[in-house]
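Study this one:
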Amino acid sequence: MNKQMIVFFLVVWCLQVTSLSQTKNNATDWFESANKKYELYNFRGAIADFTEAINLKSDYSDAFYGRGQAKSSLKDYQGAIDDYTEAIKLKLDYVDAYNYRGYAKSELKDYQGAVVDFTKAIDLKPENAYAYHHRAHAKVQLKEYQGAIADYTEAIKLNPDYFQSFFEKGKAEVEFKDYQGAIADFTELIKLSPDNAVAYYNRGNVKFLLNDYQGAIADYDEAIKLQPEYIDAYNNNGRAKYKLNDYQGAITYFTYAIDKKPNFAEAYNNRGIAKSDLKDYQGSLNDCTLAIKAKPDFSDAFYNRGRTFLMLNQKGDARIDFMKAKELGCSVSQDTLDMCK
């Protein structure tokens, strides 16, 4: 390599070094670099650059917040909480830091702490649909269903297209036993998202609770049309048919569920009950046994197999299963045990 080429490469190298130093010679440069890395899902690189920004400017609230976001993306929720807390100390009205610190606390199951943070975020920004929605979620975990429903309602008022709020509000209403309210919310969600199989499935479940088995079947059918692999919808469709004394139809749907999920203990147990009602006792025993094989602590399957053994006058086997069911927490009356003598 001649002398002229060597000089050329040295000049290029010096320019590159100078350029690099100029791009990151202050906290703002590191902050901007961190944001770019964050946008590219390079969260560890973002954390490193946010840290450089903080080292150069210890009161950089946005850098603490950004580093918290990156840590949260890596599921380091305690680290995120620490950074959000620093951001809040530096900027007392930092709404987003309260929002996301609340979210991180929820992920760590500190639901009371999450409620406090979301409440502060709402105080600072009353039109905060995100905070209402996530405060509601924390309240559900605390079994404060009425408060959760009120918060989901506010989130929906602020953002009428907030699909998840309709869905979660409906689930909270089920827990609160406001079944008609739940149906109304799942129906509204279906209007907003007609292809939402989960909304049909959940509305079907509420109708089932109201003993509207035909309505439940119609919703389960829609869920299955939209999502042909919806295993729970097949199983619950079978349960609704069973309630209508359509035992053969129930068996058909339980079988669909089992075909799609061969270790589906609940579907085996349900099919076993339906077969017993059709006096197919051997088929019932086989299904209950398969349910127990798939789920060895399935108390209901032991109970139902015991009931079938009793119908076959196999009292010893029936007693063994009833005692096992009782051991696993199933309620077995003394009268039932006395029948096995």
Q: What stands out?
A: Residues 1-22 have pLDDT under 50 and may be disordered. The first helix runs from residue 3 to 23.
